[in-house]
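ok so I'm stuck.
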Amino acid sequence: MQEAMLRALQTWPDHGMPENAPAWLFRVAHNAAIDAIRRDRIGGQKSAELVTALNESAGIGAGDPDVEEQLRDDELRLVFMCCHPAIARDSRVVLSLKIAGGFSVREIARAFLAADEAIAQRLVRARRQVRDQRLTLEMPHGDDLRQRLDSVSETVYFMFNEGYAAHEGEDLIRTDLCFEALRLGHLIATSTIAVPRVHALMALMALQAARLPARTDEAGDLILLEDQDRSRWDQKLIAIGFRHFDRSMAGDEVSEYHVQAAIAAAHVREPLDWPMILDLYEQLFAMNPSPVVALNRAVAIARVRGAAEALASIEPLTLPGYYLLLAVRGHLLLDLGRHAEAIACFNAALECRCSEPERRFLRRKIALGSGG
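replied:
not stuck anymore, here's the structure
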């Protein structure tokens, strides 16, 4: 109940008091209690329960015409409310992650590879828009609901990414966030507003989540893809991923989620077809020529054309404070036998924000480059 009261104090002054305030407080309090239990018990048993739920067709079917009933989830509804089309596009997801997801400004800034101050300003502008334009953050209907789908999907994907590779803290993986994103994505994918790109997003998240059990060892240290024990991958999640991937093929649309899902699917198959993976990254880069996509593409370039060409491809990239750029550069330099430069890159990466398992991984790479 304290959580619900706090949420009310944060949102009601800007968004207005709901028509049935007691019912609103009860729903938010109930949702907070469920979330607390989910976080405490999100281990193997809870994850298995969610996978079972995703596999089953229980609950409201996609043919049910009542979208309101299909999306009857407090957190998901709040995300839809925050993704108001009148709010600037770059602020909708930030507002959703802050209000609905409970992320801190620092966490959101890491997700966007932006400065904390820049994200704080986006939040200020979004709240000012809500106040000045007297926007009512109520649950949208009909076409308005569908207009918000892209921003809602982006919010869910940011949530998943923060869980898949936490940027700070003792743990590399935040399983609770990954499975919460899967749960929200499932709600959208089984509603009547689902479109092929939503199924592509679900395929991407499920295929990546399938690898979670093998991404770290018993000590919590990072295990690279090529060194993972594939027998530990969750076969049920892989099946779910491919089922949604098949559904994403309906229609002519090819979104970034489609290409990313295809890359994730390619990583599941053995042996890895690196030329095909590189081709998919080239397609993704043509759609979104961002530095992060370029960095991931460089890993595939190294596999197909060698470390020298991969290193040349990332030389123009500038990602201040992003440890992965320095880590990949160091790895490529190590492959080229330029050990002193590689160690300098790994040391610089240690100065950036990253999780403790990632720090231990960087120190192992420094020891390898030093011949220790």
